[in-house]
Amino acid sequence: MTNAIEFFELNTGFKIPSIGLGTCDVEPSKVEKTLTTAIKVGYRHIDCAQFYGNQPEIGNALNKLFDDGVVKREDIWITSKLWCTDHAPGDVPKALDRTLQELQLDYIDLYLIHLPVSMRKGSIGLNPENLTVPDIPHTWRAMEALFDSGKARAIGVSNFTSKKLQDLLDVARVPPAVNQVELHPGWQQLELHEFCKSRGIHLSGYSPLGSPGYHKSDILKNPIINMVAEKLGKTPAQVALKWGLQMGHSVLPKSTDDERIKENFDDFNWSIPEELITNFSEIKQA
User: Fold this and answer.
1) φ, ψ of residue 45 in degrees (nearest 5)
2) DSSP secondary structure string, 149-178?
């Protein structure tokens, strides 16, 4: 196992940076400071979404970083996502154009279907009464057209199960490059790991430090994580993230705290020994 896992190669041939900055729940007023800190620390992967409501601020921050020479566009990986109200084939390119305008970019490195769920156009939130019958094959064909155009250099999905992925693979001309799902030591999704590996689909993990509010999985307090952290002289967060990298998926920690942003990126040039990795199988799953 190479200690420094800086990139993972996708089925497109492009390399996705292994650690990305999650931007869900980052308040617009905190975006510029958060992104500036992250880029200066070394992050080269920013995970965005129309649904997060902060893409215009992310675009402004990126533009300033480009203009100031802090980072070049070609050296940074930007992911965004198609929201559930835009699944109609005619709405897919409009949604990407809107995202590109908000982010002030000519292309996106990775564009994902945010959820395998479609909702009534113009509806807000995830209220059940707004759900409509999804037609993923038709939506995917529109995504493939974005890939063909070069506006999306890779396309993929988010929150898809193995079955939903197989259903998509059965009709896809361009296979999904990525499936972004919740992944952490308390929700390891080993069967999904194996499925994606066998199909050449890269897994990317959001909430890599757990989701106490959703799955009641407070990984940072887990005794096994803390035992490994103590033995290695690392923090529980660093251990949880390193586990993800050694499992073979990219990780998307989110924070607006400067020190935690730096701490979360300090996951290169060390590894969790095999004899300690085996302990992770004992962690109770959500």
Assistant:
1) -145, 115
2) HTSBSSEEEES--HHHHHHHHTT-SS--SE
Main-chain phi, psi angles of 16, to 5 degrees: -95, 130
Residue spans of alpha helices (H) in the chain: 31-41, 55-67, 92-103, 136-149, 162-169, 190-199, 223-232, 236-247, 258-265, 274-277
CB 210 within 8 A of CB 240: yes
The catalytic residue positions are 52
Q: Which of the 8 DSSP states describes residue 85?
A: G
From 12, 185, 39, 172, select the one nearest 108 (Cα to Cα): 12
For tokens 């493939």, what's the residue? 144
Phi, psi of 228 (to 5 degrees): -65, -40
Pairing relationship of beta strands 118-119 and 131-132 according to DSSP bridges: antiparallel
Encode the chain (286 residues) as per-residue pLDDT tens digits: 345 789 999 999 999 999 999 999 999 999 999 999 999 999 999 999 999 999 999 999 999 999 999 999 999 999 999 999 999 999 999 999 999 999 999 999 999 999 999 999 999 888 899 999 999 999 999 999 999 999 999 999 999 999 999 999 999 999 999 999 999 999 999 999 999 999 999 999 999 998 765 555 689 999 999 999 999 999 999 999 999 999 999 999 999 999 999 999 999 989 999 999 999 999 999 8
In sequence order, what DSSP letters do the residues of 198-241 get, joined into one string? HHT-EEEEESTT-BTTTT-B-GGG-HHHHHHHHHHT--HHHHHH
Closest CA to 133 of 119, 143, 114, 122: 119
